[in-house]
Amino acid sequence: MTLKPAFGLSGSALKVIAMISMVIDHIALYLMEHGTVLYETMRCVGRIAFPVFAFLIAEGFIHTRSRYRYFFTLLGFAVISEIPWYLLNGADGTHNVMFTLALGVATLMVLENLLQRSMVLGFLWTLGMAGLALWLGVDYEWRGIIVIGIFYLYNILLNIDKNYRYSCLIFCYFIMVSIQQTPYFPL
């Protein structure tokens, strides 16, 4: 006899939550006066988006039929998304979050094979890809690659029920908030 969890979210529900959070974040970033309580609160809500998208990337990687197609789809959207990114941010040397997600999938593709040989090699590969993300100036830099890797390892190594993996979302949200430059808790 198994117990069914009382609460669960589908992948589609998580996507909607992440998109709404991202829109709130971008409204604050591009349309509001920085430093106000409302601005800081909206940016705090916006911090939910990336950990949720990172979770979905790890889940998608595990369940996709073609990992190369998954990677190249993300990379294609990254290239297309670079035009609006450039229009909003100018030539500041950074790149949009889709590049981070694509690098995360590339990291997982090699990491999966390396983990069969050595945990140390997998760790070094992930650190190398995090360094590449930092060097390329993609959004969320090294933090994005690490968070995607955490979700993948959490899923693969622990192999636990999907509903319990949501606790990792909360954990990664607090990681993302704590390592940001700006405080997002306006109290």
**Euclidean distance between termini CA atoms:** 47 Å
What is the overall pLDDT average? 83
Count of individual helical segments: 8
Measured by DSSP, the beta-strand proportion falls in under 5%
Sketch the major β-sheet. Answer: none
Radius of gyration: 17 Å
What share of residues is helical? over 70%
3D shape = globular
Poorly predicted sequence stretches spanning 5 or more consecutive residues: 181-187
Going by helix content, strand content and strand pairing, the class is mainly alpha
The H-and-E topology, N to C, reads as HHHHHHHH
SS elements, strand count? 0
Features:
globular, 187 residues, single chain, mainly alpha
Description:
There is one protein chain. The chain is mainly alpha-helical and 187 residues long. It is built from eight helices and no strands. The protein has helices at residues 11-31, 37-46, 49-63, 67-89, 97-117, 119-136, 141-158, 166-178. Helix 6 packs antiparallel against helix 7.
